[in-house]
Design a protein that fits this description.
By secondary structure, this protein is α/β, with parallel strands linked by helices. It is built from 15 helices and eleven strands. The N and C termini lie far apart (63 Å). The protein is globular. Among the domains are: 145 residues, 3-Layer(aba) Sandwich (Rossmann fold), CATH 3.40.50.720; 70 residues, Rna Polymerase Sigma Factor, Chain: A. A seven-stranded parallel sheet has the order 4-3-2-1-5-6-7, with helices on both faces. Strands 9-8-10-11 form a four-stranded mixed sheet, with helices on one face. Helix 12 runs parallel beside helix 14. Bound molecules: nicotinamide-adenine-dinucleotide and magnesium ion. The site of nicotinamide-adenine-dinucleotide has 24 residues, from helix 1 and helix 6.
Length: 393
C-alpha cells in the first residue's frame, strides 16, 4: 500500500543540521514533504531552499529581514516573520514531525510547542533540553508526543534500546550508558597553550563538520557536558549512570551496558545524515547518502578516560545535574554568552570555562516551575555573563 508523504517542519533549515536533513529529504521525495522551514537571517539561503523544496511556509525569525525575504521569494511560499511564528509552524494540523535544528536557547519555545501539540520531535537542539528538560519531557508525556534524538550519541543509545522504548522512561535492565566523545581538536594539545587558541582553530573539528557554537563546545568538552544533561532527561538517568569515553575516531557513537554484561553499540561513519535518516525514516531504514563503514580500514579504535582538569566544563555539567533545578539552565545561558564572546574575539579560550564556573558559583538555584521563569532566568544569567565577559576581555 502507498502511504502519503510525511509532512516535515525543518527548524534551522539554513544551518548544518538543517542542510543534512534536507539533503536526506531530497533523496526521498515520495516519503517526505517539506511543509515549513525556518532560518534566522540568511535570506539568500532560505530563498534558495524555498525554491527547491516549495514549502507552504517560510519563517525568518529575525523580523527585520521580512521584506528582503518576501521580495526574494515572491508568491511561491507564505513568508512569516518573528520568533512567535516558529511555534505556529510546529503546531499546524498537517505537521507529522518537526526537526529541531535551531542552535541555542532560541529553540526552547518551538521545541515545547511541538511536544505540546503532540507532534513527533526529532531533536538536535540540545540546549532546549538542557534549559528546559523537565518541562519538555513532561509536556511530551502529557501530550503523547514522541521524541527521537538526532544528536549522534543519543541516537546511538536510542537505537541500542528495545524497539518499544519511548524517551522519558528509564530503560529496564540497564547497568549504565557510555557516551563517546571525540575529545575535540585539543585533546592532545599542551594545556599551557590553551589561552592562545583562536576561534578558527577551535572550529576546525577533526571528525565532524558543524556550526560554530557546537564546534567551540566540542573543543571545550562543554558539548559532552551538555550531552550528559541531554541524556539525563531523554533517558531518565542519574549522572552516575552516564559515563564518558573519549574515542578520537568517532566510529562508535555510544553504548548501552545491560546488567547481564552485554554492551550494545551503534557504529558508523561520522556523518550526521546517519542519525537524522534514522529519525526521519523510523520505523523503516532509509538511505542517507553516508558512506558505509569499513572496519577493515579502521584498525585503530581507541578509548580514554576524560580529562576533567584540562577540560573543566565537563565537571560543571555533572555538578549541574547533581544540583538539579535551574542549575542546568544557568550553565547553558552562561556558556552561550561565553562562547559568543570567544567567537567574537572578546575573551580567550580558557576564559570560557572560568566564566561558566563563576556564574555557576554565584547563582541562586531554585526549582523549575514554568517557561516564563526560565525565560527570565535565561535573560538574567546572560546579562550577568556579559558583565563578566568585560572582566576577562
Ligand atoms: P548552525 O549554526 O549551523 O545552524 C543553526 C540554525 O539555527 C540556523 O538555521 C540559524 O539560522 C538558526 N538560528 C540561529 N540563531 C537563531 C535564533 N536566535 N532564532 C532562531 N533561529 C536561529 O548550527 P548546527 O551545527 O546546525 O546546530 C544546530 C543544533 O543541533 C545545535 O543545538 C547543536 O548543538 C545541535 N547538533 C548539531 C550537530 C552538527 O553536526 N551540526 C550535531 C549534534 C547536535
Ligand atoms: Mg553529539
Amino acid at each position: 500500500m502507498m502511504t502519503s508523504p510525511k509532512n516535515v517542519v525543518v527548524l534551522g533549515a539554513t544551518g548544518s543540521i538543517g542542510t543534512s536533513t534536507l539533503d536526506i529529504i531530497a533523496r526521498h521525495p515520495d516519503k517526505f514533504n517539506v511543509l515549513a522551514i525556518s532560518g534566522h537571517s540568511n535570506v539568500y539561503k532560505l530563498a534558495e531552499l524555498a525554491q527547491k523544496f516549495k514549502p507552504k511556509f517560510v519563517v525568518i525569525s529575525d523580523s527585520n529581514k521580512y521584506s528582503q525575504l518576501s521580495d526574494l521569494i515572491g508568491n511561491g511560499s507564505t513568508v512569516l516573520a518573528g520568533a512567535q511564528e516558529l511555534e505556529t509552524i510546529c503546531q499546524l494540523d498537517a505537521v507529522d514531525m518537526v526537526v529541531a535544528g535551531i542552535v541555542g536557547s532560541a529553540g526552547m519555545q518551538p521545541v515545547l510547542a511541538t511536544v505540546q501539540a503532540g507532534k513527533t520531535l526529532l531533536l538536535a537542539n540540545k540546549e532546549a533540553l538542557v534549559l528546559a528538560g523537565e518541562l519538555v519531557m513532561k509536556a511530551a508525556q502529557d501530550n503523547n508526543a514522541s521524541i527521537i534524538p538526532l544528536d549522534s550519541e543519543h541516537n546511538a543509545i536510542y537505537q541500542c534500546l528495545p524497539d518499544s522504548y519511548r524517551c522519558g522512561i528509564t530503560p529496564k535492565n540497564l547497568n549504565k550508558i557510555i557516551l563517546t566523545a571525540s575529545g575535540g581538536p585539543f585533546w592532545n594539545r599542551e594545556v599551557s597553550t590553551f589561552a592562545e587558541i583562536s576561534p578558527d582553530e577551535a572550529c576546525a573539528h577533526p571528525n565532524w563538520d558543524m556550526g560554530r557554537k557546537i564546534s567551540v563546545d566540542s573543543a571545550t568538552l562543554m558539548n559532552k557536558g551538555l550531552e550528559i544533561i541531554e541524556a539525563h532527561w531523554l533517558f531518565g538517568l542519574n549522572e552516575k549512570d552516564i559515563d564518558v569515553h573519549v574515542h578520537p575516531q568517532s566510529i562508535i557513537h555510544s553504548m548501552v551496558c545491560y546488567k547481564d554484561g552485554s554492551v550494545l553499540a551503534q557504529l558508523g561513519e561520522p556523518d550526521m545524515r546517519i542519525p537524522i535518516a534514522n529519525g526521519l525514516g523510523m520505523p523503516e531504514r532509509i538511505t542517507s547518502g553516508a558512506n558505509m563503514l569499513d572496519l577493515l580500514q579502521r584498525d585503530d579504535l581507541q578509548f580514554f578516560a576524560p580529562d576533567y582538569i584540562k577540560f573543566p566544563c565537563l565537571a560543571l555539567a555533572k555538578q549541574a545535574i547533581k544540583t538539579g533545578g535551574t542549575s542546568m539552565a544557568i550553565l547553558n545561558a552562561a556558556n552561550e554568552i561565553s562562547v559568543e564572546a570567544f567567537l567574537s574575539n572578546q575573551i580567550s579560550f580558557t576564559a570560557i570555562a572560568k566564566i561558566n564556573a563563576k556564574i555557576m558559583t554565584n547563582a541562586t538555584v531554585s526549582q523549575v516551575d514554568n517557561v516564563a521563569q526560565l525565560l527570565q532566568l535565561d535573560e538574567e544569567v546572560r546579562a550577568n555573563a556579559r558583565q563578566m565577559v568585560k572582566q576577562y576581555a
